[in-house]
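Could someone model iron/sulfur cluster with this protein?
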Amino acid sequence: MYGLQCHKRFYLNRFHKELANPLDERSEAVFQSGTDAGLLAQQLFPNGVNAQGEESWICQKTVENTAKLLEDNEVIYEAAFMFNEVICAVDILVRKGDAYYAFEVKSTNGIKSQHIEDAALQYYVLSNCGLNLKDFSIIHFDREYVRVGDINIEQLFKAESILEDVLAKQGFIAKNISDLKKLIQLKRIPDIEMGNHCNNPYPCNFSNYCNSLVERIEEETRVLNNSIQVDKPAWLQYTANIKYPLFFFDFETIQYGVPQFNFSSPYQQIPFQYSLHVLLEPNAKLIHSAYLGDGINDPRPALIEQMIRDLGSNGSIITWNMTFEKSAIKKLAENFPDYQEELIAIHDRIVDLMPPFRPNRIVYSEAFEGRYSIKKVLPVMVPDLSYENLSIQEGGTASFRYGQMAEMPEDKREQLRKDLLDYCHLDTLAMVKIWECVKGETD
Ligand code: SF4
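Reply:
Sure, complex below.
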């Protein structure tokens, strides 16, 4: 798979592992979640034997173990084979009579093109080893599954045959194996420039090394013009329906592959935190409130109750990119029907502060550089307010750190709570300041 992404990545991984980026906590967590899903899916085919044994990685020994286990076992986990000097293993191999069925487990909500290529390589090896392989399937999470009580493994996962796609790729696989074999005969690292492929389908773990090779041409210092232009009539028209009191509102969410709580589905966005700044009338004193879950229990019931109290029943709720907040609130209403009426009323009051900042719209500055995320707009509009000094500076980190909270000692948990609250607080304060800044230009 590395070779299909980039020949240089394949070569570096084969001969220069020491040049790989250090493994960070977040990459380890992604890797671990894949392993966990694989173990859980084994329960769909119980009483199997694991061919991997004591080895920490699939290797020649796993191939030998598999060969021995094939005779007497109907279900083998991590069944490994070798053909044409290519070793691979399938997560679950099932024998029925003299026919075999292979299953690969992916901790995703669907099948991606890279899964097909991965499976096509496995099919190539297994079938060329003489195995009577009748079908090849991907097992992934079923996004429609809603947890109620204990996890129902049969419903959590969905198996889909990809045999036809895999058969169609056999020529492609044979050609690539041949190309990659030639590649490892090279005496030097292939010269490949960085590009879009470095993150597609996965972020490359040699990016630090490749980045260090890029000749840093000192960009002629281009001073961006920080001045801001506002199309006043368009702004007044856009904001005509925004009514005081103004509620500047932002969620943080977390996703779990295996649903952790009742009434949630694989990878559903679970709101665990919000920040709210309220402006009762123009130039009034700002009021702030916040909610943050404990990292252990389902944060949603208490979050919903506090949110309904905090947001009242009139005034506009201002968000940055409202699609995210709106869909999270709709899902809360669906999962907690007792609060449906109040949540839908909140949903219908939400407005979006982001669209006026899109290129060629209402508020323009050369210093936005064509971007319109709040992190890009804030330092231009309000230079003395910045995310730079915060321990958490973006939503992905907030979500990852919240996921770790339950396992933390008390003192670290307290610090994390503070960091999360500071981060989300700035997200809504930023909206207030941007709002006031544009209003100052248009009043
Ligand atoms: S960073 Fe990009 S160019 Fe470098 S090895 Fe990885 S994928 Fe290839």
